[in-house]
Design goal:
2 domains; alpha/beta; six-stranded parallel beta sheet; 11 helices; 12 strands; Rossmann fold
Length: about 290
């Protein structure tokens, strides 16, 4: 804790007119990105500063990034799709799925990226998840697009999107070659899922559904793997239930760290080593 305070003091003491500003936009700003990015700036000796914001005027906020020369901006719910018309171009990672989680400002040109997609693709490979697995993914928003697309591009063909919003659910399922259901109870004849993925706010700390399981106990018991993209808390109700059932788990902090690392690289052009990234993650998740 003392080392973290010293790092923060060094960062704030060095702020000047030349300091490069990065930021985030979210309906419910958290502290992970602020701590993670600022720790790495200090450790690598970079004259950068990161600050989290919310907004009720997205167009004005995006215009401010351009007008004030803000180098980069992380984009979270519910702005990942709504920001696209306000940008000048999209990287392939964002254009392919119609969802942005990162904006990079190059001399007034705003380009959108999706590092969520990159993070999930790496986790699929890291954990040895294979395309023959039967997947059920709950969610249909911008993050769900990134996650579903990563599984699709990894070769997963036996997928179901579980979403109460029929239009969004059908659209996401159709784009990935998956099925759509509003409720798993309506699909009892289908084989049990090998892999359950939650990409909704269910289980998120501070939310109205912080103690809600994203999947029912029978579905968890039948699965081999459970992946919860919710990162705060790391031990969500879904992850706790999966561990209790003896299932393999992937927790949301892994996504948070990997996508944050790729954002750092986009903003600064520097790639921290594994030890530096681990220290930043430990500070951010403390």
């Amino acid at each position: 804790m003392e080392k973290n305070a010293m790092t923060e003091a060094r960062t704030l003491a060095s702020v000047s007119r030349d300091t490069v500003l990065c930021m985030s936009l979210s309906a419910r700003p958290g502290n992970f990105g602020t701590r993670f990015q600022n720790h790495l700036y200090a450790e690598l000796g970079l004259d950068y500063l990161y600050k989290a914001f919310s907004t009720t005027d997205l167009a004005a906020a995006i215009g401010g990034i351009r007008a004030l020369g803000i180098r980069g901006c992380a984009i979270s719910m519910p702005f990942k799709e709504a920001c696209i018309p306000l940008l000048d171009s999209l990287d392939a990672s964002a254009a392919a799925i119609g969802s942005v989680n990162t904006i990079v400002n190059d001399r007034g040109h705003l380009r959108g990226y999706n590092t969520d997609y990159i993070a999930v693709a790496r986790l699929i490979e890291r954990h040895g998840l294979t395309p023959d697995m039967r997947l059920v993914l709950r969610g249909s928003g911008g993050m769900a697009k990134a996650v579903a697309s990563a599984f699709r591009d990894a070769g997963f063909a036996h997928g179901t999107v579980l979403a109460r919003n029929e239009a969004a659910g059908r659209a996401l399922a159709g784009s990935c070659g998956f099925d759509w259901v509003p409720d798993l109870a309506q699909d009892r004849s289908a084989p049990a899922a090998d892999l359950l993925v939650n990409v909704t706010p269910l289980g998120m700390a501070g939310g109205p559904d912080s103690e809600t399981l994203a999947f029912e106990a029978p579905a968890i018991a039948a699965a081999a793997w459970v992946f919860d993209v919710v990162a705060i808390p790391v031990e969500t109700p879904l992850i706790r239930a999966a561990r209790a059932a003896g299932r393999h788990v992937i927790t949301g902090d892994a996504v948070l760290v990997l996508q944050g690392l790729e954002q750092f690289v986009l903003y600064t052009g520097r790639r921290p080593d594994q030890a530096q990234c681990a220290r930043a993650a430990a500070v951010a998740l403390a």
